[in-house]
Structure formats: C-alpha cells, structure tokens
Write a structure and sequence with these properties.
The chain is 34% helix and 18% strand. It is α+β, with helices and mostly antiparallel strands. A hairpin with a 2-residue loop joins strand 1 and strand 2. The longest helix is centred in the last third of the chain and has 17 residues. The two termini are 21 Å apart.
C-alpha cells in the first residue's frame, strides 16, 4: 500500500497546514512537481511560501503479534529447509490456500 507524502506548508514562516503535493499545488496555483522540488531544495514559492516534508512513522510488520505457535514455526522451518535443499524448481508449484485458512 503506497503512502502519500505530505508537506507542511508555511506562509512567511507561519504554518498554514499539511497537504499532499497535489492539494498544495491546487491551493497555491502551481504544479505538484514544484511543491516537491521546492520542499527538497528549501526554496520559497512566490517569495513567501515554504514547504517541508512531514515525516511519518513507518508501518512495521514487526508490530503485528506473532501468529504461529512454536510447534508451527518449527514445522514450517523444517518444511522450508527441506524444500530449499531439495533442488526442485519451486516456480513450477502453484500454492493454493485452503478456504478459511485464516
């Protein structure tokens, strides 16, 4: 899932809001590319508007709870290692999950 980059928009040093490049461009009558370039370069648009990228926290898969039991994890690792060391062409296998596997 793609995350849209947001920019803090300042007018003469005062924050006026956080917008995507497309939203900021529509408000300020410029192109989204201009917003992106001016934000990366620290330039002023029309001599008064500045942009800063808003840093968001990355979504980490590590935050999700572990869903396998230790026995399932051990079984999975054994099966995975057996397949990897078998020398079989794994691209020829089509994996189809059972209905309701989640």
């Amino acid at each position: 899932m793609a995350v849209t980059k947001r920019y803090a928009v300042y007018c003469r040093g005062e924050l006026i809001g956080e917008y995507t490049a497309v939203e900021a461009a529509a408000i300020l009558k410029c192109t989204p590319g201009t917003v992106r370039v001016y934000a990366s370069g620290g330039n002023k648009l029309y001599g008064e508007y500045t942009f800063e990228p808003v840093v968001t926290e990355p979504i980490s898969k590590a935050d999700k709870p572990w869903t396998m039991t230790k026995a399932q994890a051990k079984d999975w690792e054994e099966t995975r290692q057996r397949l990897l060391s078998s020398g079989a062409d794994l691209s020829r296998y089509v994996l189809k999950p059972e209905p309701g596997w989640r």
